[in-house]
């Protein structure tokens, strides 16, 4: 009986161990399954994110590059300047009416000499000379020159109007610094362009006493420089400064009006002109920002015996100052 009881006890112990082992195995499987589910979910999420990133990565570099290129292009674009108001110049020998020319240079109204220029849409000039012989009383000499200079807007040098203002100031200063000039006087020339200055002075030469009048006017991006001088030669009376000033101012106003007309900004010439100055049809081109060298030489000291010689002797102010 005792051995039977021992066997039964041993059997019960084995049954308990087996039961515990089965329970432990089931619990382990349950735990393993519980852990496997989140791992699978995480793996699936990573796979999905990886696919999304991969997809976006294949498109974003192009879009990013395009956006960067657009930004770089905008930042590297050249600076813009205001466009020049006037795009062309009129024919220089037609900026003053025939009637006014007859008054200023009576013996040379029909003999205007056009200056040389590589581009008449950028710069132009014309001059006239007159020698009226009064016999034993002497002769009266007159010389007129009109110079036109147009400035084009440029990102490097600035807008055309600002360049014209700078050149205008330089021309006025140069007109007051002529060697040997006496009684120099500068006054505003009212009603002539956007701004204008009249400079006048006396210059004594071997041929006689010359009286010089220079009108510098600016209209938008164009500078007009008009030189007019006169002298009584071989004993003739010297013309008065006031008479020459009035004539020079009249011619300058006509020249400015003609520049405006050539660019569709008002009538050209004065109302009492004998013939309307005709604008030039030459197309405009980018202007050089610096004026050319003087188109007129220093006055000669040789005696005047003809109109051409008198013209050489006259104290011709520079039509365009040296840059």
TrEMBL record:
Transmembrane segments: none annotated. Residues 1-22 have a biased composition (Basic and acidic residues). It comes from the Bacteria. Residues 1-28, 47-76, 258-323 are annotated as: Disordered. Residues 65-76, 272-323 have a biased composition (Low complexity). This is DUF3558 domain-containing protein. It comes from Streptomyces humidus.
């Amino acid at each position: 009986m005792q051995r039977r009881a021992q066997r039964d006890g041993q059997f019960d112990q084995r049954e308990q161990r087996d039961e515990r082992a089965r329970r432990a195995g089931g619990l382990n499987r349950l735990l393993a399954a519980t852990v496997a589910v989140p791992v699978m979910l995480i793996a699936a999420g990573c796979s999905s994110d990886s696919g999304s990133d991969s997809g976006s990565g294949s498109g974003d570099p192009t879009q990013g590059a395009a956006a960067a290129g657009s930004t770089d292009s905008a930042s590297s674009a050249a600076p813009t300047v205001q466009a020049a108001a006037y795009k062309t110049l009129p024919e220089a020998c037609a900026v003053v009416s025939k009637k006014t020319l007859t008054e200023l240079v009576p013996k040379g109204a029909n003999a205007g000499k056009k200056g040389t220029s590589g581009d008449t849409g950028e710069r132009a000039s014309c001059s006239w000379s007159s020698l009226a012989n009064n016999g034993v009383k002497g002769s009266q000499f007159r010389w007129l020159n009109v110079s036109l200079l147009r400035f084009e807007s440029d990102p490097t040098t600035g807008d055309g109007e600002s360049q014209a203002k700078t050149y205008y100031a330089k021309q006025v200063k140069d007109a007051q610094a002529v060697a040997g000039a006496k009684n120099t006087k500068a006054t505003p020339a009212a009603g002539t362009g956007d701004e204008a200055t009249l400079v006048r002075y006396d210059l004594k030469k071997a041929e006689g006493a010359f009286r010089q009048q220079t009108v510098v006017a600016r209209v938008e991006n164009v500078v007009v420089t008009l030189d007019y001088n006169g002298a009584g030669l071989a004993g003739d009376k010297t013309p008065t400064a006031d008479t020459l000033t009035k004539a020079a101012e009249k011619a300058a106003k006509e020249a400015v009006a003609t520049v405006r007309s050539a660019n569709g900004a008002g009538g050209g010439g004065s109302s009492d002109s004998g013939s309307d100055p005709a604008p030039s049809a030459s197309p405009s081109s980018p202007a050089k920002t610096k004026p050319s060298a003087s188109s007129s030489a220093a006055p000669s000291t040789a005696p005047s015996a003809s109109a051409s010689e008198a013209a050489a002797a006259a104290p011709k102010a520079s039509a365009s100052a040296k840059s």
